[in-house]
Amino acid sequence: MNDVNFFTQNIKTFLFIAGLCFTFHSTFAQSSNTEYFMSSSFTKTFTNPAKRPEKGYVGIPALTNVAVDLKTNTLNLDNFLFPGVGENGKTGWFLNENVSYDDFMENISSKNYLGVNVDYTILGAGFYVKDLFLSFDISARANAGINLPKDLFDFAKTGFATGEEAEKVYNLSNLRANANAFTQIGFGGSYPFLDSSLTLGAKIKVLLGVAHADFNLDEMRIQINDNVWKASTQASGVMIIPTVQVEYDKKGKVRRFNTDGSFSFVNGWGLGLDLGATFKPSRIFNFTGDFAWLDKLTISAALTDIGFISWNKNKMISLTTNPQELIVTGNHTIDINESDNLFKDIRDNLEDAVAFYPSTSSKTTSGLGAKLNWGMEFALMKDQLNIGFLNTAYFNPVKTISEFTIAGAYRPLSGVEVGLSYSFVHSSFQTIGFALHLGPCFYISSDYAIPHVNSQFIPTSSQAFNVQFGFAIPIGKKHQ
Description:
The protein is mostly beta strands. The protein has six helices and 27 strands. The strands form four sheets. The protein has a 21-stranded antiparallel beta sheet that branches. It has a two-stranded antiparallel ribbon with strand order 1-18. It has a two-stranded antiparallel sheet with strand order 4-5. A hairpin with a 3-residue loop joins strand 25 (429-438) and strand 26. The termini are far apart. Mean pLDDT is 81; it is low at 1-29 and 332-336.
């Protein structure tokens, strides 16, 4: 095997795993931020276990709550599609020769991330025992994140051609893909204290791990000029995915993956915890005069998804590369042309770049991706109208994402409640959200109900998407 083929051997392995991380988790999040202000919502307890619904509830089996949430900073279509550059003035892909390097790269960040969270509540119920609120749910959950370094897109656009430059260096380090899928069994409760001014809530979660993958291209540098290019690589990762097995060649190197393995539904276990509190200062302090408007103020805060999953070490596939630096001389110019599949082109041109071998990794645990929420709200018009704001920080292995939401919820009729919100995601993307609770059973909400669209009504510039819906039957009397 020559040096070029030796360098270019298994980038497809890394990209295959990165793709698995997302394709496995992209079909089925916690409650939307708009729901947080809805009086009739029970899913707001997912965001803060001290936020109590006005009535108990029983979810419709398999349809209690379905929620999907996606966020990115640059990986939206507007940054990769360019109007008028294609044939006959059509929209073209960023690899089109009519798209300049500068026009494309000015929209790419040093870290380009995509995060997905999914929550499918199969069964859920909650009820009051005097002032104590108890809840129970069984959910299928998944979260995934991927981080793509800027030089990956630089490489995709320019390929191995150096042009007039004497030298070109690509740093593809810290390309990371991470994903978890698990079953959650939750037990929650909340209770008011201090003359009902302070409500404390908690939720304990038993977690049964189904699948896990965490791969990182720790180091990959490609240094190119007209006659010589050098490359150094180091990558590592672990994975447990049902039925997926790895095949090795005679030298112990990863040859390919297959899906011939046996299916195991439980491949790990763990515990999670949600903690929350709400505080009504008017119950303790007597506000009068200029401060009378504080009578309807509620302050709330919560930290959710604190916890871990410990994966079965005997089922864990652990891989690593052998650190090496390759020097290749001669003319090895490789260009990447416009294509429907960017990663296929990169794979074809660098298919041997990262050669994986089995390793003994001590990493067998993964976090859930904690979320910090805090907000304030006011009840007006005899509690028919709630208005307030909520700040949320999502912590995940790839990127911490911050979101600020201003929202209101209005109940014009008994059994009907409408919510409206305006959200700021990582300070550069704003959007309008909407929620509707109709009758005693059905609800639907989205923090990004009106996406940014192009002239063909395709949401090309949207950097976030979520939708949540479900069916639940209220039970009992309205709890004061």
